[in-house]
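User: Structure please.
Assistant: Input sequence and predicted structure:
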Amino acid sequence: MRYFLVLVLGLSIAACEKPEQVEPEAPPILPEADPLPGLDVSDLKLRWLTLAKNCYQRAVLAARELEANSELFLSNPRSDRLTELQSRWISAHQAFISCNLYHALAFSRQEQKDLNKRILRLDAWPIEGGYVDYLPDYPYTGIVNDVTVPISIEALTNQHQMTGIYDVAIGFHSLEFLLWGADGNRPVLDFEEQSSETNEQGIELNSNNRRRAYISLLTALIIAETEALADRWNNDDSLATTTLNNTPPGAQASYLLSAVYQALSDQLLIKYFEPLDTENVQDADESAFSGTTKQGIQSQLFEIGKFLLGNGKNSQSIVEFISLQNPDSAKVIANSFGTLSNSVDKLPSDFPSLSQPESAELYATAKRDLAILISQLVQVTKDLNLTIILF
């Protein structure tokens, strides 16, 4: 039944997509570069493909465990089971955003647009919680309490960011709000099943039942969307793997370095740190209700570090790849990544809150270290006669 539901969800999501007029685009082609002589990309590419496949396997497994725990919880809502379900949400979300590196960059403008849409269905943030469910001062707000909206994948997808980017109806963070609530202390009574009551259109009227159905749909959707992303890299015949393998070595190297650049710049610097320049804490706080935004940044950096540093049998890290041409630049990149990791570890646990006197300084240090690493990566790419790809 679960696999049938995921299949139906996948078809429903596709059906709910609004048709968009696009000009025909040539097959995905990355810009060729004229790399320095002797630049062999094969081991670096192997490391990428291995890490990407493993990362998505963990993300899919964690999503399935999240769904299994949600089913257990809804069968008999208890406080301890809610705590366990919240823990599974954290694990699943951390596993998913660890893979941000591997969907940071597509192979064409149209594929990038499609990829961005999928990410927004899975991990759109920041979120206005009152769009999903009640707030302390507004007990009848949100989709859960709006009985004109059926709890179906089609309706929820249509509601998703319908009137603004904060109006997040699907994905990890709408589920986060359902599990934690506005104050991080969702009462277990909110999930107890009650006698069903429907209107003339067959729409469920009981808020508890609507909330329960909402959770079930979201967990199944998270699995379906995560599996779709995993399919890009899961075997030698998958779309992304085939495209990467069929491009010339210079373009392969440019793609891999550009993906790291995008993960550091677009995924981390722009989303988490730049909003704080204007003390816009809401826009920087990805997981505000569970309080795990800092953990999310650390998870992403940890996965980037696997590709950037270290060594492996028959594979090569970015630093090893760079060191073959410029050992000094490789050391600079490795040291800068270590400095960045340390500065992120020192961020307050409630990051991006700026409530403590030292918070602003710690944030500024982490942002500076991140910007330095990005700048160094751009320079090294240029020194190797390669190109940072931007779609």
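The chain has a mean pLDDT of 90.
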